[in-house]
């Protein structure tokens, strides 16, 4: 006990030493003093340990670990630059007593001993309790409650003899702490303890028993009731959780994929799953708030349904065009139970406000459903919530994969974290070991010869190849985009021409609409192949650079294609719908998007079949290669993102487009899974799955969702909707429906005037937008500053840890010195020993 | 198997649910798989143990290079023979489950990698660990020189207090910088 007190004193002295580093001698003197004071106890301690040594406990045996000696004795020992300073603790052969102390240092026991774990969690529960401030009592702060070195000191001293008592006491304290925690905290704490179930259940039983006893004595029955209610709630929560868990999609399929390909390929399928959930959400919102109310109150159609011909499934037109699927079908009336206002009567009304007024008086106070308003707010709400979910998951993903830290330590990370425990197939395990070996060798080579100097010629050649590759990529992209631009213009003119003369064959007209989607999908299919070829020519050193370049090129292509298409839809078609004989341009654009989505899917199927299945057969049978092709994760994910962008773009014009996307994703999942299992082999290159998924979710958020949102809001704010169809007919913009509603609200209910005020100031005034953006920027700035500060603190703390390590080394060498001096001595020579000690 | 031995008592089930990161379904599945591993005569013993060889014959563990270590770490047997009771098996699955925290996972990973059970990763542990990762065949094994350099580099990178070994907190520090660890330290039944 006294020994441990001395430890604390030492710490004090060390602190004093830190404050005045000048009188180092003084500190050391005091140290010797301490050692002298300690002599008696140390001697006792040694005697104790000697006894124990004779018992030859296995715990000592492993510390003088033979493996370590062998390794240290390997050739070139101590020659490495960094190695020299690591060694002091290991270089000398320690006596068994020192080894014993070393082995019972808390930093080393925590990894193996149960007592140490219990005491760590004891300290942790203590902290939690203090934070929660739940029923503090005097007994909480008993003498050993301080989470200090003192407690450990006792443990180390009497590790073997009093170990059992010590552990028992610690356990009692832990139980005491646990029962003072709230129920949920207790469960969470117990669950997070790295102990076995039996020990945890024992702890819980003890805590429960004590807790209940104290409950009975102190607390009235109402809190007992509370206790039971909480237990009942918890049980129902568990059953709910396990129900949710059983709903988890594709668990078996995902396990099979990850068992064979590991985390990299799995991330593609998880991405499919994420997208599926986004679409299900979107579908639920639009389906419940728009499609179902409209389907219950179908508007009277001016012309009858067209017959179903089969081509509709491809073009989305014809039979489908006057259905709940498209914008044009939705009425601009208020749907209600009794008074249904037909949309045809509305068309005649010149002024929207007048029509609305009459409607209101007609329907009175009966529950009604204002379709234009519902349409406007549903789309707005869906986009808003999607945006929040996306930003949230993006920030979470960023937080997980990019920690604020210096990014060295790749080798340690590789060795500690690279094994994928999910991989269970024998050949995959073998392949994985080979990969890890290759990667380790490469990394070692990299660290040993940092940069190989290349000759100027080589470097120029390299730069030239890169320039050429980028030239080819950008050139082909620009060429494709220009071709697309002119082709869409040509198709537009063709449509204008066809609309002027009545065609004989309406089917041909429908089919001609498919030309543009086919061309776009072809471009999307073929250009990535060219990009891959150029990347192969460039020969990038690191696979991650290779992936990033491939992603940026594909992204460039897809973004420019989508820009041209958006111009085609919103600029050409929406500005002058009558020139191609359209009554309802929104429905037409919706059909176009449906066609694009479907074509994209069909081309993915074809690509999977030809690119993966036939290519595998070809390379195995004809080229006699052993290897199967590798699943290109980034390209496939980018295709998914492209498809999702189309779906988001189309929600405004085709409220049920998410349903199509859901079906597409479901089919895609099963198809890709079969194809991957059949045709592919696990990737040869390392794949940093979580960083890549962060990038993918960022791409999904930034160009994809944001672009779609900008397009949709541009359409809502400034494009004139069709005059004869859809919920916003007879309005100058879709946005006006919200505006009119607010005005109406103001006239009907003066109490809500603030809403109108807020609307006019917040939504219509750009100043507010600027202000919000400014505040946002300031918050970001503050955050970066905080991160900067934390980085500084981290480096300070790191320095401190190194100092502590030095201290530890110093203390241990002292201990060893004392021990060595002591061992051959008999007690009578102690006095001379003391004088020696004080001299050194 | 509808016998009484293979059915889990309801209170035990809920207790396991509370004390592990597993869901009810997973626990029942685990119990089914565990009962399949038991031999006939073991079923009547109050807390039956499955010997290590049988545990390692599970397809989820069969080709894992760390299978013996995993079995040893989670075994509560006094004989240190790596045999598992059902509760040990649950501990194993809980540590490798989806919802286990990074801390639990890194703690057990540390113990799995600590081949000599001395509470720190020293040179010998690291050497064994690397050998497990690269496989046992000669062409994938690192040479002595490579191994020496690798281990000194690892220690330089992760041994913050410079005492020549990697202790638990240093290990957890490295792990916390690797976002892939949580997703790869998983075994699903």
Quick synopsis:
Chain A: Keywords: Membrane, Transmembrane, Transmembrane helix. The complex is a heterodimer of chains A (840) and B (189). In chain A, 74% of the residues lie in helices and 1% in strands.
Textual characterization of the structure:
The complex is a heterodimer of chains A (840) and B (189). Chain A is mostly helical and 840 residues long. Chain A has helices spanning 2-19, 24-55, 58-61, 66-72, 83-86, 88-91, 96-103, 106-109, 114-132, 149-157, 163-180, 183-191, 197-218, 221-247, 251-261, 263-296, 312-315, 343-348, 352-363, 371-401, 410-417, 426-448, 456-500, 506-512, 515-538, 543-573, 585-622, 633-650, 657-679, 689-718, 735-748, 753-763, 766-822, 830-839; strands at residues 334-336, 368-370. In chain A, strands 1-2 form a two-stranded antiparallel sheet. The longest helix of chain A has 57 residues, at 766-822. Chain A is globular, with a radius of gyration of 37 Å. The two termini of chain A are 27 Å apart. With 189 residues, chain B is mainly α. In chain B, helix 2 crosses helix 6 and helix 5 crosses helix 7. The chains are: A mainly alpha (840), B mainly alpha (189). At the A-B interface, helix 4, helix 5, helix 6, helix 8 and helix 12 of A face helix 1, helix 2, helix 4, helix 6 and helix 7 of B.
């Amino acid at each position: 006990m006294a020994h441990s007190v001395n430890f604390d004193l030492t710490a004090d002295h060390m602190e004093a030493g830190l404050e005045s580093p000048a009188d180092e001698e003084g500190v050391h003197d005091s140290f010797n003093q301490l050692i002298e004071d300690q002599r008696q106890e140390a001697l006792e301690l040694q005697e104790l340990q000697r006894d124990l040594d004779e018992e030859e406990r296995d715990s000592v045996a492993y510390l003088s670990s033979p493996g370590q000696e062998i390794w240290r004795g390997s050739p070139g020992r101590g020659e490495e630059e960094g190695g020299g300073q690591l060694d002091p603790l290991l270089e000398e052969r320690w006596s068994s007593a020192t080894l014993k102390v070393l082995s019972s240092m808390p930093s080393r026991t925590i990894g193996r001993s149960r007592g140490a774990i219990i005491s760590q969690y004891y300290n942790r529960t203590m902290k939690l309790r203090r934070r929660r401030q739940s029923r503090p009592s005097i007994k909480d702060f008993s003498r050993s409650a301080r989470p200090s070195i003192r407690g450990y000191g006792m443990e180390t001293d009497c590790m073997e003899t009093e170990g059992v008592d010590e552990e028992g006491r610690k356990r009692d304290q832990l139980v005491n702490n646990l029962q003072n925690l709230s129920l949920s905290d207790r469960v969470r704490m117990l669950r997070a303890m790295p102990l076995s179930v039996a020990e945890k259940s024992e702890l819980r039983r003890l805590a429960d028993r004590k807790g209940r006893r104290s409950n009975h004595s102190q607390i009235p029955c109402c809190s007992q009731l509370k206790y039971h209610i909480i237990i009942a709630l918890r049980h129902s929560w568990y059953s709910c959780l396990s129900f949710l868990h059983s709903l988890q999609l594709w668990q078996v399929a995902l396990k099979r994929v990850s068992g064979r390909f590991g985390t990299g390929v799995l991330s593609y399928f998880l991405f499919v799953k994420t997208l599926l959930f986004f679409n299900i959400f979107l579908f639920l919102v639009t389906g419940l708030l728009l499609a179902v109310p409209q389907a219950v109150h179908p508007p009277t159609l001016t012309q009858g349904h067209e017959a179903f011909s089969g081509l509709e499934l491809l073009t989305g037109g014809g039979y489908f065009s006057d259905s709940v699927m498209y914008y044009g079908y939705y009425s601009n009336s208020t749907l209600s139970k009794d008074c249904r206002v037909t949309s045809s009567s509305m068309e005649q009304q010149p002024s929207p406000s007048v029509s609305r007024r009459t409607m209101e008086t007609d329907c009175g106070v009966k529950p009604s459903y204002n379709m234009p308003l519902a349409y406007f707010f549903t789309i707005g709400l869906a986009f808003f919530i999607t945006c929040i979910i996306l930003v949230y998951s993006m920030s979470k993903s960023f937080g997980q994969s990019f920690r604020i830290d210096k990014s060295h330590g790749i080798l340690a990370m590789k060795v500690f974290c690279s094994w994928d425990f999910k991989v269970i197939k024998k050949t995959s395990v073998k392949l994985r070991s080979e990969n890890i070996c290759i990667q380790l060798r490469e990394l070692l080579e990299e660290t040993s010869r940092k940069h190989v100097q290349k000759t100027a010629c080589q470097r120029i050649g390299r730069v030239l190849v890169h320039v050429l590759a980028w030239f080819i990529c950008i050139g082909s992209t620009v060429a494709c985009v220009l071709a697309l631009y002119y082709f869409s213009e040509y198709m537009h003119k063709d449509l204008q021409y066809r609309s002027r003369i009545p065609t004989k064959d309406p089917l041909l007209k429908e089919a001609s609409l498919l030309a543009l989607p086919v061309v776009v999908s072809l471009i999307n299919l073929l250009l990535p192949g060219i990009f891959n070829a150029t990347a192969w020519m460039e020969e990038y050193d690191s696979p991650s650079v290779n992936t990033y370049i491939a992603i940026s090129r594909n992204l460039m292509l897809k973004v420019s294609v989508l820009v041209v298409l958006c111009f085609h839809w919103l600029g050409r078609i929406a500005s002058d719908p009558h020139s191609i004989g359209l009554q309802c341009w929104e429905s037409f654009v919706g059909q176009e998007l449906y066609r694009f989505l479907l074509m994209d899917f069909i081309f993915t199927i074809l690509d999977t079949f030809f690119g993966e299945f036939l290519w595998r057969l070809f390379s195995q049978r004809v080229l006699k290669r052993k290897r199967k092709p590798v699943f290109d994760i980034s390209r496939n994910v980018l295709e998914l993102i492209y498809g999702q962008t189309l779906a988001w773009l189309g929600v405004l014009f085709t409220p049920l487009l998410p349903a199509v996307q859901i079906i597409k994703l479901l089919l895609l999942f099963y198809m890709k899974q079969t194809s991957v299992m059949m045709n592919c082999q696990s990737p040869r290159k390392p794949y940093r799955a979580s960083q890549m998924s962060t990038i993918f979710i960022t791409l999904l958020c930034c160009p994809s969702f944001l672009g779609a949102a900008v397009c949709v809001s541009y359409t809502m704010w400034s494009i004139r909707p069709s005059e004869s169809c859809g919920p916003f007919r007879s309005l100058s913009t879709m946005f006006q429906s919200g505006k009119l509603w607010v005005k109406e609200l103001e006239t009907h209910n003066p109490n809500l005037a603030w809403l109108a005020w807020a609307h006019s100031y917040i939504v219509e005034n750009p100043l507010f937008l600027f202000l919000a953006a400014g505040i946002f920027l300031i918050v970001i700035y503050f955050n970066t500053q905080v991160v900067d500060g934390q980085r500084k603190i981290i480096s300070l703390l790191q320095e401190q840890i190194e100092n502590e390590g030095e201290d530890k080394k110093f203390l241990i060498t002292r201990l060893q010195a004392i021990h060595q001096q002591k061992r051959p001595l008999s007690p009578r020579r102690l006095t001379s020993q003391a004088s020696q000690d004080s001299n050194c | 198997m509808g016998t009484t031995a293979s059915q889990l008592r309801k209170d035990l089930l809920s207790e396991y649910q509370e004390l592990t990161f597993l869901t009810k379904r997973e626990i029942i599945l685990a119990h089914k798989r565990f009962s399949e591993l038991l031999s006939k005569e073991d079923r009547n013993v109050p807390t039956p143990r499955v010997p290590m060889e049988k545990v390692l014959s599970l397809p989820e563990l069969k080709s894992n290079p760390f299978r013996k270590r995993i079995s040893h770490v989670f075994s509560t047997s006094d004989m240190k023979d790596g045999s598992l009771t059902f509760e040990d098996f649950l501990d194993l699955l809980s540590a490798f489950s989806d919802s286990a925290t990074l801390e639990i996972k890194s703690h057990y990973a540390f113990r799995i990698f600590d081949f000599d059970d001395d509470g720190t990763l020293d040179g010998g542990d690291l050497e064994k660990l690397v050998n497990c990762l690269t496989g046992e065949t000669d062409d994938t094994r690192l040479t002595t020189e490579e191994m020496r350099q690798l281990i000194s580099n690892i220690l330089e990178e992760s041994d913050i207090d410079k005492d020549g070994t990697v202790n638990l907190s240093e290990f957890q520090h490295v792990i916390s910088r690797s976002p892939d660890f949580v997703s790869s330290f998983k075994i699903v039944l």
